[in-house]
Here is the input.
Amino acid sequence: MKLKWPSQMTIQACLSTRSDLGVHIDGFIATEATTVVVQADADAAVSGRAADVLQAAATALEAALRLIRPGRKISDVAEPLQKVPPCVPFNSF
Here is the structure.
């Protein structure tokens, strides 16, 4: 199968899609990312493995935000986050 550039792909139901954006203005850098699970019924709740992965990511982000403080090392934030994902065993969905 020939690979397509993302702009050439058709969005299909049950597809997990990610959007990442980075901006650099006057020396300040900001990034933002989000993952969306596309479903045939836009009003339906995400369930199953996709929901597990999204919840694990949200839990890890919440934990990281609580740990980030002046004077802490990156490892002070990263090490505790290694304990979050095992609550949802996954490699992919």
Notes: The chain has one domain: 13-39+46-87. The CA atoms of residues 57 and 85 lie 8 Å apart. The longest strand covers residues 15-25.
